[in-house]
Structures are given as structure tokens and as C-alpha cells.
Amino acid sequence: MKIWIKTFARFREVFGDRFTVEVPLDATVLQVAKTVECMHDGGRGMLMESDHTIRRSVILLRNGRRIPGEGREQVRLSEGDELTIYPPVAGG
Amino acid sequence: MLSGTESERYLRQIPLIGEEGQEKLRGAKILIVGAGGLGTPAALYLAAAGVGQIRIIDPDRVDRTNLNRQILHTEKDIGRPKVHSAAEKLRALNPEVEIEPIEDALREENSDPLVRGMDLLLDALDNFQARYILNRAAVSCGIPLIHAAVNGLSGQMTTVIPGKTPCLECIFPHPPPAARPPVLGITAGMLGLLQAGEALRLLLSQNAVAANRLLVWDGREASLEYIPMDRDPCCRVCGVERGSSE
Question: Residue A10 is nearest to which of B126, B151, B214, comparing CB atoms?
């Protein structure tokens, strides 16, 4: 199935602004995130931790609504969903 | 009632905000936490606009690496406390506003006395540890807080209205990794001015544009986008259901 990905900030510089990825039917947020990270060598380590979980600071939204909590990686997406990925920044 | 000097100084903005608005600004008290890349442009424009009392806190001294973005400090200020360097320039710009420099870090134990009595708080910090302290003080004292942060060519801003909008811990329950990111001066300047603009809207009783959402600036294409944000009912700082899951 096709999932739309929308990114911001430094993720946009590496992965692009808005694009689609092909993932198996009923893929989870974690599977989609892994697919995105593997798209570009320069993106390795930006989205995923070394233990293959999604960085906890990264904000995720499904169709414009926050995917909250610890169980967010296991949320299953549907054909045509948009996954927004925002990496918060901290500098001042 | 505005003085003759005030009427002259603010002549070009009074048509926009009225004498009543100008008097509101004169009576306002703002705490700016950080006299760096975000805090200096924000303070500069808030002082110019006539915000009556600006308390600015920062423990650091100016060094040469600050000067690409911390716009109130100059080569001559290297080695001086940032808050005194900033206060000098702000007073020179507008002697009618009261500047209160505090050379200290925001900590859990001094946060309450620092924020109490303020109308508005500006997060111009560079780390989430201190941001969480400021956020807790804002929520506990019921004072609006305008957050911003930058990295490279992009930045983010959100406005916390305690009890009404998500607080910083609702939005960022886990801090991004601590780092010293590259920053182009104009990125910090843009975000500092967006904070100053939001501060003026709040002080003038207008709508906050960054409440309930994260405003994201991308300097590569000069774009502003908004990401909607909700309160977390289980937020450990402001959640209505906090404690029930513990």
C-alpha cells in the first residue's frame, strides 16, 4: 500500500518534503519509519535509534493528528494515510 | 495618558494599536529567559515597541562565537555578562522602558520568584532541561509562555496558555538530543522576532497565532507551516488525568 510522508526541518533536507512510500498492507508506524530511513544513506540514525526503535523525541502525526504514547510504533496505517514526521530542535 | 515623548516615539505604531494599546504595553512585564540568539532580537523589538518592564536572565558571558546571531552584543562586549551587555543596548534604544538584568541561570529553586508577577514569559533558552523548569513555573503560576528553538536554517515556536493549550511537556514529552547545533544568525533572528510578535499580540489581548500548534519556520524556502498539537490528558505537568495512571 501507499503511505504519504510529510517531513520538516533537517529531515526535509535529507528525505524530501512530501513523498510516498510503498509498504506491506497494514504496515505499522515502525515499519514505515524504517522504510523512510532506508531511503537515503544520509538519513541513517536521524529517525531511528541504534536499537531500531523510533527516536522518542520525534513527533509523529497520522493524518494531522498526533500519534501519542509508547505504543505509537505499533499503530497500523491504512492505504493513503499521511504520516507527518517532525524532529524537534533545541538551540537558542 | 502618554507623555509627549512617548507620543512622538510611538507615532508610527499608535495608528495600529491605539493609545490604549500603547499604554497596555507600557504597563506590561515580560521575563525573557536567555540573552542569546533568540532573546536578543526579541528583547530589542519589545523594548523598541515600548514594553514597560523587561526582566532578562542569563548566566553566561559574551564570547566571539556568539556574535553571528546574538545581535545586542558587539566585539567590545566579549567577556561581559550577556545580560549587562544587552541591558545597556536596550536602555540606549529606549530609556523609557525598565530593564532588569539578572546574571543567573533559571533553576527549579529560583523559577517561582522570577516568573511571579510577570505578564508573559519568553523561552529563549538553548536546552530542554531549563525549558521544562520554565514550563512548570509557567503552568504553576498561570502565566503564558512563548517557546522557540532553532537549528540550522529552521526553527519552531509554540505558545502555552496554561489550562487552555498544550504545555511544553505535552508537545515535547521527550527532549531532542542535547547538542550545540549550527545556526545561521537570521534563523535565530526570525524566531526571536516571531516570539516578539506573538508577545505583542498577547499583551494587546489579541489572538495567539501559535497556541495549540507548532509553528515551523524553514529558512531554505522562507516558509511557515503549522502542525496541530493537542493537550495530553496524562501530561505530568498540566494533564487533567495526571497521576491517575501512576
Answer: B151
- Please tell us whether the domain made up of B4-228 is placed in CATH 3.40.50.720: yes
Cβ contact (<8 Å) for B228 and A61?
yes
| Spatial separation of the C-alpha atoms in residues A82 and A4, rounded to whole Å | 4
Query: Are B176 and A87 in contact (CB < 8 Å)?
Result: yes
Put simply, the answer to whether B36 touches A65 (Cβ < 8 Å) is no
The three cell numbers of residue B28 are 506590561
Task: Give the count of domains, chain A.
Answer: 1
Does A67 contact B at CB distance below 8 Å?
A: no
* Domain CATH for A19: 3.10.20.30
Q: Phi and psi (nearest 5°) for A71?
A: -85, 10
Any chain A CB within 8 A of the CB of B149? yes
Beta bridge pairs of residue B29: B53
Give a yes or no: residue A71 inside a domain.
Answer: yes
Q: Which three cell numbers stand for residue A20?
A: 510516498
Taking alpha carbons only, the member of A83, A90, A87 closest to residue A67 is A83
d(C-alpha B1, C-alpha B201), whole Å: 21
Sign of torsion over alpha carbons B127, B132, B133, B134:
positive
In a mutagenesis test of the B interface, which of A8, A14, A58, A63 is the best target, namely the one with the most B β-carbons within 10 Å? A8
ipTM tops 0.85: yes
pLDDT in tens, B98-111: 999 999 999 999 99
Distance between A28 CA and the closest CA of chain B, angstroms:
21
Range of the domain at A78: 2-86
B5-59 residue pLDDT tens: 999 999 999 999 999 999 999 999 999 999 999 999 999 999 999 999 999 999 9
C-alpha cell at A77: 496505517
